Amino acid sequence: MLLILGALQGCRDDLSIGKNLIPGSDYLNAIFTDTLTLKTKTVREDSLSARDLSQYLLGASIDEVFGKSYSAIYTQVRLSTAGISFNDTAFVDSVVLSIPYATYYGDKNAFHFIRVYRLTDTINASSDIKYFSNQTFSAEPVAIGQRLHFSTSADSSFTEDNVTYSPAMRIRLDTALGQDVLNQTPDGAFKSNTDFKNYFKGLLIAPDTSFGFTKGKIGLNVRSDQSFLVVYYHTPNTTSKKLRLPLNSNAVYFNYHNHNYIVSLISQSLCSPSSFSDSLVYVQGMAGVKGKITLPTLQNLGRVLVNKAEIEITRAVNKFADDSLFAVPEQMICIAADSNGNNAFIPDQLLSLSGQPEYGGKKVTITDALGHTYVRYRFSIAAQLQLIIDQKKTDYGFYLLSFPSNQLANRIVLGGGNRSGDNYQMKLNLAYTKLK
User: Fold this and answer.
1) For residues 352 and 349, what is the distance between their CA atoms, to the nearest angstrom?
2) pTM
3) Angle at 286 (CA atoms; ends 208, 205), nearest 5 degrees
4) Which of 134, 173, 303, 310 has its CA 20 to 30 A from that of 246?
5) How far is 70 from 210, CA to CA, in rounded Å?
């Protein structure tokens, strides 16, 4: 359902508080306020869905604000056709894992150190099985391939067998693996994909942190038809033969993410008591951190009809944020917390599709009359707020996340609710009517 948000329109680009919040004479008896107390915190994300993504992140990155993050990929390898037979003795020449790039986050010229391991655990291919960003699978301790000290900017498209392939991360694997694959039989591992997966359980593609952390993450299009493991071989009677084993959309793959905030600017916010309200809120993808908003004085309004309600958040100016290198999200979402602290949808996310106030969440850059520039996001939460006021839903607070948080590395520093009314303060722009 979160995918629906991608089709929603962006927020209005006005800067003045209240402007267009009460259009024309729609709400003649409405009361407007933007001073309702917002208590804001930065909290860790537990985990996110890590399967069936449009791209998968890879790398060990670091920045001064958000500390260190580690992203690895688990993937199956499949047969392109069952019952493979070479009809002759086959001898391996080389083995290459090739996965096209999707995007890049951070410094594109940064150097990466990647190793590939063979899995010893079986990945369940059932569509009913969900994989999350904190799950791990066992692998052999010794790498079967590596590519060290490379940058994605050095890779370009290439042509093979009259087919042009997109720029890809290509990693040489151990030829012993290739020979072992070639030694399989049509009535053994090559009999079916089920038999092949029992023989070859899959790969772990992971950064090697012993070389340190870099200033970026690689985004890979693992689902592409150009993702494959290829074994180059020859027979006594032939040369330059290829066996392509695809990592396409029929395979199962998922992302793993881990974060270390000990030496970072956000560590103090994560360790502060839950009773505190922070002046800065941190949001990061890859199942990192998210913002939490609570409205402790909401019920003081009494019995009211919510005409409009917008959460307005602004990127805080921070000399350490390095937003020129680490881009802020183009889209964010504001959702609810449930009784267990998990992410939950709010009705406003779908109401905008039926002509109700637009949900929002898109990045808008605003310049005021003095030439000051602000990056802002707005979200309509009127329907959710009305349910809380009417006591039809229990208020466990709201969460702020980048979108889609499970496949983008973008992060942002936001002004919190505990500020002195400056232009970066997070606020709720609320128009309501008192009911008898």
Assistant:
1) 7
2) 0.89
3) 30
4) 134
5) 12
